[in-house]
User: Fold these one by one.
Assistant:
Number 1:
Amino acid sequence: MRIAAGALALVAGMFCPALAQAQSGTAPPADESVLGVLPITGTAEEHVTTLAVLPSLSPDRADVDVRSIVRRDLELTGLFKIVPERNAPVGTYGFDDPVDVPEWTKVGAEVIVKAAAKTDSKTGKVTVFGLAYFLNVGKDPVYEKKLVVDKKDIRVTAHRITDALLGALTGRNGGFASHMTFAKKWARNMRVFTMDADGNELKPVSDENHTAIGPAWGPNAELFYSFSKNYAPFKVFRHPNAFPLPFSGSVYGIAFSSDGKRMAAAVSESTGSSIYVGNADGTGFKKVSNTRISTHPVFSPSGKLAWVGGGAGSGPQRVYLDGKAVSPGGFRAAAPAFCDTEDGIRLVYSVAVGGDREDLVTSGEKGGGTVRLTQNQGSNTYPACSPDGRMLAFFSTRRKSKGLYVMSLKRWKTQKVNSQHGQSLRWDPLPPAPKSQMP
C-alpha cells in the first residue's frame, strides 16, 4: 500500500516548516512585537561564579574521560566562568592527591571541582571520585563521593557526578544523565538517531533502508518511533519491534505523559490528521483535537497536552493547549516543548518570521507573557528541554554552521554541541541509577 498524496503533503508540512508556510499561502505579519523581546535583564553585569576543574595528568584513560566529561557538562550549563586549564597551579593531580585550595583561590576560583577515576588492573572495575568546594561556605567540601562501576558505565557515571555536583552547588540537580533522540535525512530516507546530552555517542537506531520519523522516549526510557517500510502507512515501533495501535491510518508521532501512564498520537485521517489520547499500553484512545491538521503532541510535566493545529479556514498553524490556541495569531507555530524550570513550567515553540527563518519563543505554561529566545540568528527549530529545566536544545542554521545547539535558560549563553541537523528532537532522563551507583 502506498501513502496517499495527501498524506505525503501532510508529512512534508510536519517535517519541513518552510514548505508548510509556502503551501498555506500565509506570511507572518510585519509587526513582531507580539513575540516579545530577548530576555536581557538589568543594566549591570550579573556576577558569574568562577569555577575550576582540576586537570587530569593520569595515564589512565578512565581518569581522562571522567574529568573531560564533567568539565564539558559544567561548561554547557552556562552557569559558570570556567578557569582556563593554562591557569592551573603547578602541582600533583593524582587520584588520591589532596586539593590545594589556597593555590586555586589565588587564580580566582570560587568553586573547585575534582573529578577523577582509577582503574583496578585486577578486576577491571573503575573507582570514580567527585569532590567540590564552595569557598564562601567554609573549608569542608560541599560534595564528596566515590563510586565503583564497570568500564562501560564510566560515561553515564560522569554525567551523574555532574548532576550531583550541580545539586550541591545550586540546590537543583543537573540533567546530564539523560539522552536525546531525533530524526534526520539519511541517504534517501529519514532515520532515527540517539545521543547523549552532551552531543556525544551519536547512534543510528532505525533501519537505514526504510523511513522512520517522530521519535519519543516512553516508559522505562524505551525508544518509540513511527516507521514506514516500502511506502506502507507509518506504524509505531517500540524499538526494535512493532507496537500495535488501534489506527488504520499513519501515526506520525507520539508522546508520553511524565508519569508514563498516558500516550498521545498524531494520526492521519481522510481530510488531515488528529490527536488522540489513550493509555500508555496502546488502548482506550479518544480524539481530543478539533482542527483539520493536528500534529506534534507533547505533554506538560503537569499533565496538560499541547500540539500544533491548523488547516483550512483557521489561518496559520498555531500551538494548542488542551484544545485552546495559545500561540500568537498570524504566526505559523511549530514543535511545542515544555521546560520545568526553577521559575515554573514554560512553553517553548518556534514561529515563522519570514525569509524561511524561524525563531524560538517561550511563554507561561498556558500561554501569555511571550518572550523571544532567538532573533536574527538563522532558523531555529524543534526545541527540547533538559530534564532539570536549565537548558534548551534546538537545531539551528546560525552563523552558517548548522547543528544542534544548547541554550542556558538562566544565562542565555548558547553553544553548539553537535553538527547534526534534524527534526523532532526529544530530551528525556535516563532510568534511575542502581543504589550502588547513586552519586
Note: Residues 85 and 161 are 20 Å apart (CA to CA).
Number 2:
Amino acid sequence: MYNSRVAGGTVSTGSDNRIFIYEVVGLRQNEETDKTNYSINRSGSVFIPVPFKRMNQEMQRINRMGGTIVSIRPQNADGAVNGKVTPQLGQQRKQPTQESKPMTQAKAKSDIPVNIYRPKDPFVGRCLDNQTIIREGAIGKVRHVVFDISGGDLRYLEGQSIGIIPPGEDANGKPHKLRLYSIASTRHGDYGDDKTISLCVRELEYKHPETGETVYGTCSSYLCNLEKDADVKITGPVGSSFLLPEDPNANVIMMATGTGIAPFRAFLWRMFKEKHEDYKFNGSAWLIFGIATTPNILYKEELEELQSEFGDHFRMDYAISREQKNQKGGKMYLQDRIAENAEQMWRLLQQENTHTFICGLKGMEGGIDEALSLVAAKEGVNWSEFQKQLKKNNRWHVETY
C-alpha cells in the first residue's frame, strides 16, 4: 500500500520543475477516467508524469478513480527513471518475451502475480471441463468451466480475475474486447496440481428494447457453450485488493449474489478443503448468499458439505428472493438477511481482524449500507465514517458489476 509520508520524504528536496512518474494500477473505467487523455487498462500499469507542485492533487485524483500508486520515481531530463526509459503518457509496459520473467506486483510482502499475459499476447489454454451448476427449475444458464494452464507461466491468487478474449469480430469488424471474470478456484486449481484455473459463468440473456429479440452475451455465451479440448485466450491475472487475508485467525465475512460466489468458492476451498504446510485457517468464515431460487444455488453441494464438516468455523445463510420472505413480508434479498443479523455483524466488524468482502450485482451495496447504518446508529456511530476507516485499513473489499 502506498505510504504518503514516505513519498513526501522522497520528493521534498526537489524543485517545482521536477517531474515524477506515478506507476498506477487498478484504474477503473468510469465517467471520471473517461475525461482523461491517457489510455486506461485495468489489466496493466499506467505511468503518469506529474509535476512536483501537483503531486498531492494527483494522489487524491488517482484515489478517487480507484487506482493504487505502487511506485513514485523521479524522471531524469532524458525521460529515464533509475536508468530505464519510462513509458510516456498512456503507454503500457512492454510485453514480456518468452525468455523474460513474467511481470508481478508485490504488496505487503506478498508476491502478487499481475499481468503475466496481456491482450496482445494472451495465453492459450484448453477447456478441460464445462458443467452446469444449476438444477432443474433454475433460471438462466450457469456453468463451471475448467481450463488447462499447464503449458505456460500463468499463476494466480484467490480473489483475482482473468480476462477472456472471445473469438471473432464485433459489429464494427474489430476483434472482440476481453471480459474479466473472477477466478473460482484456488491457486492450486480444482485438481490440486497447479495446472488448472476455473470460472463460474452465467450466460447473459436479455430482450432487445426495440426489436424484442433475445440477445445473448458474446463472451458469456462463448464460455457457456465451450466444448472440451477447445482453445481459449486468457489474459491476466489482475487484482490486488480483493485477496484473502493472510491471517489464518481472521474473521472473513463474504456477501455474494449469483456468480459473485466465484471468489468465495476459492476462499473456502483454501480455508477448508485443501491442506497447506504454511497455512491453516483457524478463524471464522461467514457467507451470506443471495439467489433467486433454490435450484439456482451455485455450488450448493460443495457449500453445504463444508458447512456440515466445518460448522465450528463456517456459517452460511441463504437469501432466496423468490421463495423466502423478509420480516415485512416482502421478498428476501441479501440486504434483508444482513438486516436480520446486523447486530452480530456489527460486533464482528469492530474486531480488528475482521475482513468483509462483497461480490455480485452493484445494486446490493446500498441495502448493505442501510442495514449496517441502522445498527451503528444505535451506538452513536456514523456508519459512513466507520466504513471509510475499514477501507483505509484494507478491511472492506468490494467487487461489484
Note: The CA atoms of residues 197 and 327 lie 40 Å apart.
Number 3:
Amino acid sequence: MSLVTLSIKTEDYWRLFNKMHLCTSNEQKKIKQIKIGQNFCQELEAKGISYSWCIKHPEVLGCNQSRKYYQRYQEYLGSDYSICKHLVVHERKGQKRVFLIIVDDEKSVDLKELKEQIGCSKLEFVSNSELDDLLHTVPGNVSLFHMKFDIECKVNLIMDKELLEKSLVAFHPLYNGMSLFLTPDNALKYLNAIHRVATIMDIPSKNKEYVLEKVM
C-alpha cells in the first residue's frame, strides 16, 4: 500500500486534530474529514483488504475533476484503471427500491433500458436528504465504501461487469479529498467483509450526447 501527495505527515494531522480549538470552523471540518479517510484506510487494513495507492488531493465533486489530479500520477497508476461513477436512484412508483449503480466514468447509463433489464418501474435520482439517510453522505462523495452504512440493506448494489476487467478501480475512502486505487478483487472482498453482494451485469449505455446524468 502506498500513500502519495500527503502534504504533511500523518502524525502532523493528528497534532492538528488535537488542537482543533485553535482552528477555524472550516479547518476543523477539513481535519475531521481527513481523519475519516485515514480511519477508513486503517479499517481496510484491519480487514486484510489491500489497496495499491492512496492519493490525497483537493476535494472533488465529479469524475472529471478527479481525472485531472489522477493524471499527475500516471507513472504510478498506469493507464488500466477505472474512475468509478456512482448513480443513486430509486423507483418512482411501486416498491420504490433503491439502487447504487457503479460504472466507469466514461459510460453514460441508459436508465430506461436498465429498468427493463432489472424489472423495475421508472428510475429517478434520490434526493440529497434520502442520500444522507441511506448512505450517510452527500452528492460528490458517494463511494462503494458507503455501503457499510446501509445497515437495513435498503440499497441494491449493481456494478458494471467492465469494472472487473480493469487492473485498478478508484473510490473515495468516505472522503472526496482522498482516492483509493485497489484491484476489483479487493473491492469485492470489501463487500464480502461487510456481508453484502453486488449484482454484476453489462449495464446498458446511451450516447453521452443525449443524456444528462446526475452523478453522486
Note: The beta strands are 2-4, 53-56, 81-91, 98-104, 123-125, 155-160, 168-171, 178-182, 199-201.
Number 4:
Amino acid sequence: MSNIKEGDTVRVLCEAKLETGELCYNNDANNPLEIVIGEGKFFTSVENALQNMMEGETKVFTLEPDDAFGPHLDDLIIKVPKTVFNTEVTLEIGSRIKIDTPTGKSFIGTIVTMDDMTITLDMNHLLAGKRLIVKITVLSVQPGTIPSQ
C-alpha cells in the first residue's frame, strides 16, 4: 500500500460539520466521493490533506472559509422588486429561490427580509464565511499514470 500522490484517483467517505456540530454534508460507502488528486475539481486544501494518506486512513481537519466556500460578502446581498417573482411562488423569509437572468444564468438566493415592494436576497453560498470540520476516510486508491515527457 502506498501513500496518495498527485494523479491518483481516490474514493473517500466525507463528513463536514459546522463548528456547532451541525452536519452539512455526509456520504456513505454506496456513494463515495471520487477525487483525482491535483485535478483541481475539489477543494485544494482537501486534496492537499489527502496527499500522503493511505487506504483505510481517516483524518480530521478544519477548512477555513477561504479554503471552502469563501467569505460572506455583503455585496452579494441585494434588493429585488417583488414584481420580478412568479406570483404563484410562496415567498417567505428563509426560503431559497432561483433567479434566472436574461443571459440564461441562474442563481440561488435566500430571502432575508421582505416588505410590500422589495425582497432582500442573500446570494452568498449557504456555507460562505463558515469554518468546516471535515472528517475524511480513504476507501480506495487507484494509482495515477505519470504522463511521459
Note: The radius of gyration is 20 Å.
